[in-house]
Amino acid sequence: MGLQLLVLVVLCRAVGLGTAGWLTGAVFAVGSWAVLTLALRRSWTGSFGPANRVTLARTILVGGVTALVADSFDGRAPVRVLIALATVALLLDAVDGQVARRTGTASPLGARFDMEVDAFLILVLCVYLVVPLGAWVLSIGLMRYAFVAASWALPWLGGDLPHSMARKTVAALQGIVLVVAGAGIMPRASAAAAVAVALALLVWSFGRDVWWLWRVRPDGPVRRPPAHYVPACRPRYTTSTRKTSTRFVTTTKISARRQRLSRGGRCTSTVPGSRAGRAPGRPAVRWTPRRGEE
């Protein structure tokens, strides 16, 4: 928190930070310090780690951006300083992950910390673009928070998602487009078009993830084979449930052999919960008919 206040002092002397910027920056410093302290106590993490220190440096830069954006509503904001701080914060986003993997200090706390800093920076940049482009830009920054709020009512939205390079690319593109649009180097119409394209890609990315989570939800429907393809010997399923810190995970062990069907088909069992979209705990069984009965 002390470093955040020091950044506010430097901005005050360099660009003349106003009262609104001071208050907003101070609230951000106290709030981020309180949330991070609570998260550290709950995670029982012995060491903060080098990767989290890089993310903490990004948090300080985001606090400076937040103060400048709040001060821009009272007067003309120093665009160069604002864009410079936002650019460095976005570039460091690619550093903390590399540091975590190389030092072996990757943790759920670090991943969540990095995600929250990214989301808040995107929201602040959207607030800055409300005046030149319109309030519709806020939909980019609020979409992630709306997704989290929806997961409270629909727990299946809180499930784990598979790795996706498309998701990471779309997320990184949001920050780049918002920074370029906020720099004022493009005509207003071109900036609005670029932000609209970024919003469309973000909607596609969220929709894709929601559809995948809906398909693999634990209470989803089970696809059953045709009635005349009944295996001669039904496989035995043993289900065990273990509790994690965030959700219940159900694992299913399948004990089955290939059995010939009464009409010449065969039954092949595979591991449940695969990336193809099958719900965890639901076995994936494929019935192969006899040739000529497809």
Can you give me a brief rundown of this structure?
With 294 residues, the protein is mainly alpha-helical.
Characterize the structure shown.
Strands 1-2 form a two-stranded antiparallel sheet. Strands 3-4 form a two-stranded antiparallel sheet. The protein has 294 residues and is mainly alpha-helical. Helix 1 (2-15) packs antiparallel against helix 2 (19-43). The protein has helices at residues 2-15, 19-43, 50-72, 79-103, 108-128, 130-133, 138-153, 165-183, 188-215; strands at residues 236-243, 248-255, 266-270, 284-288. 60% of the residues lie in helices and 9% in strands. Strand 1 and strand 2 (248-255) form a beta hairpin.
Computed structural class: mainly alpha
General form? globular
Taking all Cα atoms into account, the compactness measure Rg is: 25 Å
Largest pleated sheet? 2 strands, antiparallel
Give the beta-strand count.
Answer: 4
Separation of the first and last Cα atoms: 68 Å
Order of helices and strands: HHHHHHHHHEEEE
Q: How much strand content do the residues show?
A: 5-15%
